[in-house]
Amino acid sequence: MALTIGVVGATGAVGRKMIDVLGERMLIDVSLRFFASKKSAGSFLEYRGKKIIVEELTEEVMKEKYDYLIFSAGSSVSKKYAPIAKDAGNTIIDNSSYWRMEKNIPLVVPEVNAHVLEDYKGIVANPNCSTIQMLVVLAPLHRKYRMKRLVVSTYQAVSGSGQAAIEELENQLIDDNHPNKVYTKKIAGNCIPHIDVFCENGFSKEELKIVYETHKILEDNTIEINATAVRVPVYSGHSESVYIEFDNEVDKECVTKTLSKSPGIVVIDDLSKNQYPTPLEIADTDSTYVGRIRSDLYNKKAISLWIVADNLRKGAATNAVQIIEAMENIKKKENNYV
Ligand code: A2P
Fold it and tell me: What residues does 307 pair with on adjacent strands?
């Protein structure tokens, strides 16, 4: 039987990627419905070569029955419409940050904590893009050596701020005087250490999302995390430089071996051939890439590494579709068991 899936925010940068990823990954038939604001209603988007009309998002359409609704239209839309859809008995995969830290809402990176989806129906939160790719790599290391402290700096692509930000970079690259609308400063030729709003403690909200989402997903509030989130003039693909101190001694070979065997990870790390992952080279793929793995010069319990993933795919759309795959697998197991 076909799955009915609704995509809310289908016309946006993540929404469009969601449609591509569903088309590539879904093994069973999917009956899709697309929702966006009134201004896009009546336009068409393609799924597997077939044109599907975009409908206006309303309370009424959210009360209808879907197997899954995927939301990527921002926090205010998720806040208002996700509870309406949930009360109608639907399961929602929400890309916004609105529900992520709610106690009873699972926050899921399928390679790391798919178990929290067992027996669950309702709103499921898709973590922040930087958290997802970092945890695909760090969770297997945490299980093996236990992380004590980590320091991460991110290099985040403009596509993470939506379609308007992609256009702002494109325009500023050809017109020096194109105004800054999405960002506080010019993004072309620049690096901006400011993602989301600043909080009283001097960290940006994006940096604190990395801290608290990591604690929730790994179910460990004792890990000391210090993050600096930076927007860079890259269209697609977030990169992260991560330094980790463990409870136990680690060596580079064991870390590389552990990561090579872990799900969702591709290790690219051959310095003799200048092999390490970069956002341009891994664009439009679903894995998380790691390289530049090196032991600390002074501390036998610490390593540094470099993590890259496509932020619109693994950092958003692919992770959401993997959550659907995980929930479908759980249902299949339950049915076989009965
Ligand atoms: P629309 O294209 O009609 O404005 P992005 O993050 O790339 O800017 O995309 C945001 C997505 O969320 C778009 O699909 C946009 O639709 C949708 N969206 C934004 N606000 C609303 C709203 N109030 N109701 C429904 N969809 C919305």
Answer: 240, 290
Residues 94 and 77 in one domain: yes
Would you say the CB of residue 12 lies under 6 angstroms from ligand 1? yes
> Structurally, how many domains does the chain consist of?
2
**What are the beta bridge partners of residue 76?**
none
338 pLDDT higher than 60 = no
Residue 246 structural domain: 130-311
State residue 215's pLDDT score: 98
153 lines ligand 1 (CB under 6 A): no
Residue 336 pLDDT grade (very low, low, confident, very high; cuts 50, 70, 90):
confident
SS3 28: coil
Which residues are the active-site residues?
A: 129, 238
Residue 144, sorted as left (phi over 0), alpha (psi -120 to 50) or beta, turns out to be: alpha
pLDDT tens, residue by residue, 268-314: 999 999 999 999 999 999 999 999 999 999 999 999 999 999 999 99
Together in a domain, 156 and 288: yes
Predicted pLDDT at 337: 67
Q: What mean pLDDT comes out for the span 84-98?
A: 98
| Residue of the CA atom closest to atom 27 of ligand 1 | 37
Query: Which residue has its alpha carbon closest to ligand 1 atom 25?
Result: 37
- Closest ligand 1 atom, CA of 10? 14
Residue 36 is given by DSSP the state E
Question: Both 143 and 107 in a single domain?
Answer: no
Q: Is 246 left (phi over 0), alpha (psi -120 to 50) or beta?
A: beta
**Same-domain check for residues 212 and 239:** yes
How many Å is the Cα radius of gyration of the chain? Answer: 20
